[in-house]
Amino acid sequence: MSAKFLIIDDGATERHLLSSMLRELGHEVDIAESTEGAMARIIAGGYRAIFLDIVMPNQDGYKFLRQLRTNPETANQYVIFSSTKRTKLEVEYGIKRGADDYLPKPISQESLNECLAKIL
């Protein structure tokens, strides 16, 4: 089953790695280097899920996720935090802030497959 995903991440290497893994699985991928302008893309995009980095310049993933959850058009959008923040407490914090799932970086094919199995 093919799906459409959005990756929001300021790291070129991370964007490339994740988008390559998703495309190899037959999925469509859009990329944003920051949260700027991402809300309009999400509203118009029809994404199955968004992979959202936490640590980014200008606006971090926590603040952007809060915006998504308070907007009626995006409140139910499936969001997966992807971050180098990987301790149990950091993962729990991300989930408590409203993320649907959490993938620690570097993302492995195995962890991505487990995540996708929950949503496809």
Task: Give the H and E element order.
Answer: EHEHEHEHEH
Helix- and strand-based class? alpha/beta
Strand order of the largest sheet: 2-1-3-4-5
Between the first and last Cα atoms, what is the distance in angstroms?
Answer: 7 Å
Beta strands, count: 5
Quick description:
The protein has helices at 12-24, 38-45, 61-70, 88-96, 109-119; strands at residues 4-8, 28-32, 49-53, 79-83, 101-104.
Descriptors:
120 residues, alpha/beta, 5-stranded parallel sheet, 5 strands
Please give a structural write-up:
With 120 residues, this protein is of the alpha/beta class. The protein is 42% helix and 20% strand. The protein contains 5 helices and 5 strands. Strands 2-1-3-4-5 form a 5-stranded parallel β-sheet, sandwiched between helices.
Topology, pairings included?
Elements: E1 4-8, H1 12-24, E2 28-32, H2 38-45, E3 49-53, H3 61-70, E4 79-83, H4 88-96, E5 101-104, H5 109-119
Parallel strand pairs: 1-2, 1-3, 3-4, 4-5
